[in-house]
Specification:
This protein is an alpha/beta fold. The chain is about 35% helix and about 20% strand.
Length: about 270
């Protein structure tokens, strides 16, 4: 049997408070030793994830902006297709251009009090996300999504309905709502990559790890779902679509590490 792991980042592999994956190093090393692909699948941008993938030590494809695109670093012949970029990375676009999302959001501001990343400078994004201005610059390099905050949550239902009428969707992440293309999701990207890897691996099974509502579809699409609890002890509840479900014993990277070690030892 072969495994492939898909993981959310903020609040899952990365601690919510300081974005550290230090506590997950034992499980990360164990995955590398077994040759198990670790696919980062997140709301973060290509610029952010390319940097983080190097720090973590993974060179397999990764998914950005809530399923907006799959980026395929050089040396991954199992994954076909995608337009080539200057550095040899290939990109499979699954979402709509960010310019279209911004146009909708700008028009929507006439009815709802909201502000997207495109309305904020790097300093404001840094303050809201609790990271450096340099990191905020990378977070603002959006291609297929627009994170936003809405002052009056009561207007969210109307905003979501207006978005659906334009072929768009609103999802909820850990700190922001996200405007994306209708049908765009982490689950769709997971299925694309599972299908690609299954061509060359026997009895492939998928593990998905996440903590937020925008991870739900991905978790329910995987063979094994690992739910990371929040710091207050509560956790995302999955529906009937989920298969095997494991709730990690701790929040963040420590819980991620414990759950993955448990799975690897039982495999």
């Amino acid at each position: 049997m072969s495994w492939i792991v898909f993981t959310d980042l903020d609040g899952s592999l990365l601690d919510e408070a300081d974005y550290s994956f230090e506590a997950a190093r034992p499980a990360l090393a164990a995955l590398r030793e077994r040759g198990i692909p670790l696919v980062l699948i997140t709301s973060k941008t290509h610029a952010e994830v390319a940097l983080l993938a190097g720090e973590i030590g993974t060179s397999v494809p990764y998914v950005v902006e809530n399923g907006g695109a799959i980026y395929i670093p050089p040396g991954n012949p199992e994954i076909e297709g995608g337009g080539a970029l200057a550095d040899g990375t290939r990109r499979i676009a699954l979402g709509r251009p960010q310019s279209e999302l911004r146009a909708f959001l700008v028009a929507a501001r006439e009815r709802w009090p909201l502000r997207g990343f495109g309305d904020m400078d790097a300093a404001e994004v840094a303050a809201l996300c609790d990271f450096s201005v340099e990191a905020a610059v990378l977070a603002k390099e959006r291609e297929f999504s627009e994170p936003f905050r809405i002052d009056d949550p009561a207007g969210l239902e109307g905003l979501a309905a207006a978005a659906r009428a334009e072929g768009l969707d609103v999802t909820r992440g850990g700190r922001f709502h996200h405007l994306i293309a209708a049908g765009q999701s982490k689950a769709v990207a997971l299925r694309v990559l599972v299908e690609a890897y299954a061509r060359s691996r026997d009895a492939l099974r998928s593990i998905a790890v996440g903590d937020s509502p925008n991870d739900r579809a991905m978790l329910e699409a995987a063979d094994v779902a690992v739910v990371i609890p929040r710091p207050d002890g509560t956790h995302l509840e999955l529906g009937s679509g989920a298969h095997d479900v494991i709730v990690a014993p701790h929040p963040g990277a420590a819980g991620w590490n414990a759950a993955l070690i448990r799975l690897l030892e039982s495999a």
